[in-house]
Amino acid sequence: MFRKLFGGIVAAGVLAGALATGALAAPAASPSASPNAKPQAIHRDVFRGTVTAINETQLTVRNMNGESKTFVRTDKTQVVRGRNERASWSEIEVNSHVSVRFETRNGKLYAARIHLGRAHVAGKVVAVNGNVITITNKDGKSVKLNVTGETRYFEGRKANRKPGTLKDIQAGDRLIATGKWDVNGSFDAALVVTLGPNAR
Question: How many CA atoms lie within 13 A of 163 on its CB side?
Answer without folding.
Answer: 2
